[in-house]
Amino acid sequence: DVKQLNIAHIPLNLCTLNIRSLFAPGRAVFIPDAIDTYNVDIFAFSETWQNSCTTPSQLFDVTPANFQYLGQPRDNQTLTDRKVRSTTIGGGLGFLVKDPLCPEPLKLPSYSSFEIFGINIKSGSSRLAVLNVYRPPDSTRPKPFSTFLTEFGSILSSVATLPHNFILTGDFNIHVNDSRDTHAAQFLDFQ
Asked: What is the pLDDT of residue 123?
């Protein structure tokens, strides 16, 4: 999904994608092609599969010229079983940002029902916070949906106090186009 946004009256294109591994075969070709095709300034990825064993050369391979990669591996600290923790794949969030935008990571709390990673973008004296969220499907997370709604409300309350604009993007694994989906109805009614 590509959205156009403005910072300091400069149009920017934001693209969001559940990449299901930055390091899968062909990603080093796909990413620059998508950036060129859609004239992307900020690329937000969910499910990067970046982890503590990811090497700098792996990240270099998927970072096009004139872009910076900022990423956050999935925090598996909430998984108590070492066997589960060592075999768990998925998760992780990242951004590719065009060099002149000066991205800086945001300090955000961690939550039990979703992952979140954010950056501040600066252009002149203007700033924009971009927050990337990944909520795993219900089948992989033992947290009730009500926990997600409570925690999501907490992050919204927090970012609403920022002294500048923000945009929230990501993969929520909520099918808002399905009128029979009770989670979609609860999410759309969320206040």
From this structure: 78
